Description:
CATH class of the largest domain: Alpha Beta
Structural class: alpha/beta
Largest sheet: 9 strands, mixed
Strand order of the largest sheet: 2-1-11-10-12-13-14-15-16
Strand content: 15-25%
CATH superfamily of the largest domain: ANL, N-terminal domain
Helix content: 25-40%
Number of strands: 28
Low-confidence stretches: none
Number of helices: 18
Number of domains: 2
Mean pLDDT: 95
Bound molecules: adenosine monophosphate
Amino acid sequence: xxxLSVIRKTGADLRVAPNFAxxxxxxxxxxxxxxxxxxxxxxxxxxxxxxxxVERHAAGFLRxxxxxxxxxxxxxxxxxxxxxxxxxxxxFANVLGQLGIAKGERVFxxxxxxxxxxxxxxxxxxxxxxxCPLFSAFGPEPIATRVNLGEGRVLVTTxxxxxxxxxxxxxxxxxxxxxxxxxxxxxxxxIPGTLDLATLMAAASATCAPAATSAxxxxxxxxxxxxxxxxxxxxxxxxxxxxxxxxxxxxxxxHADDIYWCTADPGWVxxxxxxxxxPLLHGVTSIIDREEFDVERWxxxxxxxxxxxxxxxxxxxxxxxxxxxDIPRKYRFPNLRxxxxxxxxxxxxxxxxxxxxxxxxxxxxxxxxxTGGIMIANTPAFDIKPGSMGRPLxxxxxxxxxxxxxxxxxxxxEPDVEGELALKRGWPSMFRGYLNNAERYRKCFSxxxxxxxxxxxxxxxxxxxxxxxxxxxxxxxxxLIGPFEVESALMEHPAVAEAGVxxxxxxxxxxxxxxxxxxxxxxxxxxxxxxxxxxxxRKRLGAAVAPKEIAFLPTLPRTxxxxxxxxxLKARELGLPEGDTSTLEAGG
Length: 588
Ligand code: AMP
């Protein structure tokens, strides 16, 4: 690491005093009990995320403060105060009660960034139901797979998404009893087999005490993808709120008067933990933009809304960089004081681009669905080593470990040595299981260490550097995509004999999904068939998951035990050495 490239922070870089400056001292003094004391807890004991996020503010002096400011192209901005959010969430909780939904039962939400989604999330948590977010760019197949794995009883979605993605698959989701629809046109919906949410809300009382949940009661179920098999539902309890609060303070440096913008979609874990929960906990106003990425719109929001803290993703930053430096020159960002990014490796150039163009470096941080909250971060007072993810937050014990032959792991003490990134169990938002899959959960741990599946290094100053994934999971535009899910959808096409899916490096979105397929006897490859397969995958999986490229191969390389060697497909695609091919089946 070239020390000249370190971005040294001075007082001038800190436009307000950061929440903490003495890293070593804060780490020493930190305990999770002390962090818990920053929240109120339920009056009768226990803890409930919605109570901490909304109720305690609605009952106090923040009642009339805007919790969310919803922006969209076709309507004026709509502010929703903590008080109003409490009323709406209370009505939603009562709607669930009237439908007979019990504590611990799953409510899926599938919508764009519309106010009703946020109300449904907070109302479900208040009721004690479990929130399972679905990304609105998923196609029918990933939606049905997750609803079934999560045994969803309720789905909250819009009339358009329902008709496009759910209606024809409804009979494949046997546990799904109630579909609550929001009309995208603002009408009353009247689709057979569904209920109109606005009508139910209007008739429901707003008074509803938060469910008596404990830290270990399931609150959130986030699906994440592995290399093989179906997606895994990572279970998080209400106690995760302690991490959300502490990391909002340490890693995002939230102050009470911030205007905060998290660009992540609440269909994914960042958009839930840091787009919904953490800012509410800190009583800050969040900007929620319904629209998709648009360079002028984004600079305009940063400027016009006076955003002070911005949490975004490398793909978005690279898209802004691609549009050049002339556009941002038209805007001013005097209020912006802290920028953070997560989800994929953040190139050093992107960190410096922030400093040159927006006046602030970008602060990378690292976490994953299973950790429930930010674990490693560059915080405002740290010097930044561009390309590094930063240092473990107070309360987080991170290490680089090596796997031993007996199945245990040992901590690598020497700096700059590559190994698996591991976290010592014990932080409150650590996932408590993969739903109905105890075996897969158990495999994530070795003794006290949770093994993240990421390869990384730690330098002599304690900064962590991402190296790559230890598995074949694909990261595209910040979203984890399981190759198996894509391969399965392709194999459902009558022409496909076998499919192997890899992440192909891309300068903007990190990786794109590329599929290799071999055809069944009687089918010949052609441009027409390639396009048909792309269309088939897109229809089933949705734009977020479907492959962008498909190539035909006569056969796919397999191990002798029959597994497709994606690693080899990738090496061949990239012209890299093929590595150990001793397990390759003859002729592959
Ligand atoms: P997810 O569970 O979808 O949030 O994805 C988590 C994965 O994203 C991690 O295990 C990493 O592979 C990757 N990731 C998250 N943050 C970073 C980062 N700052 N740098 C590099 N990779 C990251």
